[in-house]
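[Q] Does anyone have a clean structure-token version of this?
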Amino acid sequence: MPPPLGTYLALSPELGVFFAAVGGHTRPSISLVSPASMLRALITLALVCLLQPAFADERAQTQQQLDATRQDITELKKLLGKLQEEKSGVQKDLRGTETEMGKLEKQVQELQKELKKYVRQTDKS
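[A] Here you go.
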């Protein structure tokens, strides 16, 4: 049952007045939130709204850094590919050189054998 008319003026500041749905008259209502809490909430909301552009700038800067990093990674992959191709070429050349060295060693061994034969033949004569 609502309090008698005129008593809502003497109530504490937490009480407010609202329009009732039935009959259109006013009566006191107990507020669930104190004015100080609402003020803190309003200040917090205002700060969040004011800081949004700063967060957006940070996001844009972070996105730019990510894009630059992706570009660097792409360039490094290309460089790595070129280095691997060069390495393959050098390894191929090395195998060719080793093959040639093997052939030359065989030729040296054959020439030494021939030289020994020649020396033996000259010693016998």
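[Q] Thanks! Anything notable?
[A] Residues 1-32 form one domain.
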